[in-house]
Design brief:
With 126 residues, this protein is α+β, with helices and mostly antiparallel strands. Helices cover 26% and strands 31% of the residues. The chain contains three helices and six strands; from the N terminus they run E-H-H-E-E-E-E-H-E.
C-alpha cells in the first residue's frame, strides 16, 4: 500500500523555513536509508505559501473556468501550511503511522504530519 505524508509547519516560524545544517544532514540520511530499504518512494519540501497560489472552483461552476478563482500567497487564513510531502510504501495504516512518527522526530520545529492512504487504480469501481 502507498501512503502520502504531508507535513505542516507554522508559516510564521522563520526556523521552519530555514533549516539548520544538522537537520538537513539528518533528513538526508533518513531519506537515503528509507529509499534504500524501499519504504520511501519520493519526498520533497516546498517553499512557503507566499510563493504559491490557491485555485478554487466552487461546486456547480458553469461556463468553462468562469467561476475559477486564483489567490496568490501568502494565505493569511492559514497558520499552518504544508511544508513538504513524502510518498511511502507501508504494509498498512499502522505501519505508515509508525514511519510518520520517525519522520516527525527529525524536525526541530513543531510539525504536524498527516498520513493518507493513496487510492490505487484497482480500487476504483467501474
Amino acid at each position: 500500500m502507498r501512503f502520502l505524508m504531508m507535513h505542516r509547519l507554522d508559516e510564521s516560524a522563520p526556523e521552519a523555513w530555514d533549516p539548520a545544517p544538522e537537520f538537513i544532514e539528518k533528513m538526508g540520511a533518513f531519506i537515503q536509508e528509507s529509499m534504500g530499504n524501499g519504504r520511501l518512494i519520493t519526498a520533497e519540501g516546498v517553499h512557503p505559501s507566499a510563493t504559491g497560489a490557491l485555485i478554487r472552483k466552487p461546486r456547480g461552476a458553469g461556463v468553462r473556468g468562469a467561476a475559477v478563482r486564483v489567490t496568490d500567497g501568502p494565505f493569511a487564513e492559514a497558520k499552518e501550511v504544508i511544508g513538504g510531502f513524502a510518498l511511502i510504501n507501508a504494509e498498512d495504516r499502522a505501519d505508515a503511522v509508525e514511519f510518520a512518527k520517525s519522520y516527525a522526530e527529525l524536525f526541530e520545529a513543531e510539525v504536524e504530519v498527516e498520513v493518507r492512504q493513496v487510492v490505487e487504480f484497482d480500487e476504483i469501481p467501474g
